[in-house]
Amino acid sequence: MTFRRPRSLNGLILVGFGLVTLPLLFSVLWALWSLDRVAEQSEDLVNTGVTAAANNRLLAEHVGSLERVTRQYAVLRNEDARQLVRQDLQTIFDRLSQMRSLAESADALPLVQSVGGQASEIVDAITQPDLDAAGAQAVVAQFANLKTDVTRLTQRLNDYVDGKLVALQSSTREAQRISAWQVAALVPGTIIIVLFFILLVARPIRQIDNAIDQLGRSGFSKPIVVAGPQDLEKLGRQLEWLRLRLLELAQEKNRFLRHMSHELKTPLANIREGTELLLDGTLGDLDPAQREVADILRLNGLKLLQLIENLLSFSAWQTKNEVLTLSDFPLRALVISVAREQRLALKAAQIQLRLEVEDIVVNADRDKLRTVLDNLLSNAIKFTPKGGYVTIRAGVAPGGFVIEFADTGLGIPEDERPRIFDAFFQGRREQGGQVAGTGIGLSVVMECIQAHNGSVELLDTGEFPGAHFRVSIPQQQQVMRTEKLAANA
Q: What is the mean pLDDT of residues 185-194?
């Protein structure tokens, strides 16, 4: 037999509510029934006790009255006294008749019959015409046995009432014990049922939450599958449709970026080539003003090339088409090479570059690491005021090597720090330079470093007034300091 759970969330909630409520309702109904039964027994016991006590008292009074009128008749021997004796005897018979049902329940019916028989024998004996004084005294003496039977009857009825009281107490304790067991079983049972249905509902909700988190992090590659109630499965199918649509839009965006970047690189290459010809003097010597204009063209051409390369790198990482080409190379030589390419920008902004780079050989993708260095240095130049300085540090770290970039700018506001590595995010502060950034420089840095299984973080050590980035890249083998390889680069 298989458990067929409801297919909708509302049905699942109703079934869970029913399974939790039914045991509680049964326990409440049983408690009410037990309470009503105990109350009924208590009322019956009270009525029985009151009736038994009243009948016992009245029977004792009737027997005492019969004894008095019998003694009077033994002396007077007249008709009035004889009538009083017969009346008291009838009163005793009436009282015994009222006590008969209770005496039968108390198994005291023989005592009732004995009391009635003795009373009748005494009256018949005392009313004999030829009874002398001695005989009358003997008859009156029989009241002692009659009173003894009355006392025994009273005791038997009292014992019966006490027995019913004990039974009532036992029944009450049994009801309390059963109620306690019901509560003891109901609490963990209810908790188990609640946890079971929470798991049934929480699992698809957790899947939906993970799917939304995946979409929020631009994770469109993993299909979204939600298993659970029909309405939650329907929501999962809608999220899967949204994922496919977002994936399609992302692919279209990346195709556009690749096509536009390639289209822009061709005319830009021609512009850079012409600028280099002018600066080299191939077309004739340039006066200082002309050379200044040519330097500006060259500088901004390099910036545009960097932007295009960032777009191409970003597009490649988004489509997961980019692979690493690992090789061993001296890190200091690469840093100096990147700094030389940025010398015009440093000179134009009157920014001093401080290099604190150890002569070490690293194993990484040289072109990707160059992109990282170029982007971080370009970013530092943009936000460093004139007359400031940029510091580049690099050296061996446990398990790999680190590179640090720090500037003397205004730094990054606290509210912008969580988003600085998001693609196309640009802060509120104005950037320097004549060519505005695209907002993907740090995103490309993050992608390149993560491809090396490394990390990039924004530090807040207080050593520098501006931004302070640290790049950590692990190495399969310990990075070795080697002056020789660095010198041959």
A: 75
Q: Read off the tokens for 307.
A: 């932007």
| Residue 475: both structure tokens together | 């190495």
Which fold is adopted by the domain 9-194?
Answer: Four Helix Bundle (Hemerythrin (Met), subunit A) (1.20.120)
pLDDT of 411: 82
* 8 Å CB contact between 380 and 374: no
Name the percent of the chain in helix, strand, coil, to the closest 5.
70, 10, 20
Fold of 323-488: Heat Shock Protein 90 (3.30.565)
What's the gap between Cα 432 and its chain centre? 49
Decide if domain 230-321 falls under CATH 1.10.3720.10.
Answer: no
Whether residue 403 is predicted with pLDDT greater than 90 in this model: the reply is yes
Longest dimension (CA), the chain: 180
CA-nearest of 336, 348, 241 to 293 is 348
Residue 472: helix, strand or coil by DSSP? Answer: strand
CA distances for 59 relative to 146, 162, 240, 377, 449, angstroms: 11, 20, 93, 119, 109
Would you list the domain boundaries of the chain? 9-194, 230-321, 323-488
CA 103 – CA 309 distance, rounded (Å): 112
DSSP 465: S
Give the pLDDT confidence score for residue 472 in this predicted structure: 93
In DSSP terms, 474 is beta-bridged to 400
274 burial level (CB within 10 Å; 0-12, 13-18, 19+): middle
Q: How confident is the model at residue 474 (pLDDT cuts 50, 70, 90)?
A: very high
Give residue 293's Cα distance to chain centre. 65
pLDDT tens string 357-375:
998 999 998 888 988 898 8
Out of 22-26, 298-302, 435-439, least confident range: 435-439
| Distances, alpha carbon 365 to alpha carbons 101, 213, 315, in Å | 109, 31, 18
Say which residues have a Cβ less than 8 Å from residue 197's Cβ, sequence separation at least 6.
12, 13, 15, 16, 19
| Confidence at residue 482, expressed as pLDDT on a 0 to 100 scale | 42
Sheet holding 326-330, edge to edge: 326-330, 360-365, 480-481
168-188 pLDDT, tens per residue? 888 888 878 887 787 777 778
HEC-encoded secondary structure of 296-334: HHHHHHHHHHHHHHHHHHHHHHHCCCCCCCEEEEEHHHH
The DSSP secondary-structure symbol of 385 reads P
Q: Are the CB atoms for 486 and 361 separated by under 8 Å?
A: yes
Mean pLDDT to the nearest integer, 389-396: 91
